[in-house]
Amino acid sequence: MHKLARMLEGRLHYAWVVSALVVMVLLVASGLRAAPGVLIIPLEQAFGWSRDSVSGAISVGLLLFGLAGPFAAALMQRYGVRLMVSLAMLMMASGAALSLLMTKPWHLMLTWGAMIGLAAGMVAVVLGAITSNRWFTHRRGLVLGLFMSAMAAGQLIFLPSLAWVAEHGGWQVVAMICAAAGFLVAPLVMLFMPERPSDVGLRPYGATADDAESAGPGGNPLTVTFRALSTGIRTIDFWLLAGTFVVCGITTNGLVGTHLIPMCFEAGVPQVMAAGLLATMGIFNMIGTTAAGWLSDKYDNRVLLFGYFFSRGLSLIFLPYSNFEATGLTIFSVIYGLDWLATGPSTLRLLTDRFGKHDAPIIFGWIFVLHQVGAAVAAWGAGIMRVEFGGYVEAFVSAGIICVLGATLALGVARLGGPGLRPAAA
Hints:
Helix content is 78%, strand content 0%. It is mostly helical. The longest helix has 31 residues, at 359-389. The chain is built from 18 helices and no strands.
């Protein structure tokens, strides 16, 4: 690491090398976490499992994906980002490999649900938050937007390939590919990711000699995690932003990430073509979320969040009535793709402004827990609604209406740069 940093000195700040590693980790981790979305139909055909049974296992993964966040932030600050990320990648790879032996639904819940969900949560939003705060003084919002776009792009870009593999080679080959990806990334993290800029003799990107590098909160990770939560729950803004993230989870990972492919398949769209929609969404997500990071550095993030939720709601209501023809599906893919994870940079910017750059990633992790509670409810609930109503129209229209609630909550958050913490009402 030191040698590479010296080779790049004067040409490229090592923060960008670390960012490239984080993007790679997030791409692979999000792809592995989302892979069950293309396995729903193959697993039903291979084992005779019901839709709500498979959806239930996915919802466990989504829930643990969020629950790991705040504890991951504290563990990374205590034991190191490099170690925790490497262990998480190995755990995901092991979960995918062990799934090759499964014969019962609870095996799916243990491997793709518990193991992969928990490990993916260790390297999700908190990794991007810690890295952007630790390695960047300037361009922090832009970099976080890039990380958020990688989270969505991993599942949206890689899923079409995995869908093709599942259709032509079977779900077992998908599991093998996912396991291999995790096992390959872990050693790269160990070799090339230092903990802090000072470890390679650098300051954070854009920092001056007057900008001191803080070591972050110390102490027992469990204590640090719950201390940050205690700080957050006493403010109105924590609950408002948590509410918006519940809505975000319902309308992204839970509904679209899990059920878009089977919904399109049942409407007569081939599974590979349906996964191609996710690829289109992934491309526009990279544009939209990176732009959202840039916008979060310049404009009122409350208003930005309002716009993101409102446009997402319109796209979700539109989809069931698009007749699933090329034009309608393209319109949905573009609008929804631009918005997929655009809420992340603005939310972290508001949290950092109120709680500081060390507590903000942990509090962001707690809010992401609620994001994944919403996702888990939607993943399971949409599967139940599909069984009860024979389709997905009710689930998507309801999600679109819920987005209006998220947009309204965003406007209630204190203005960026205004008064600090606002105590919650007694």
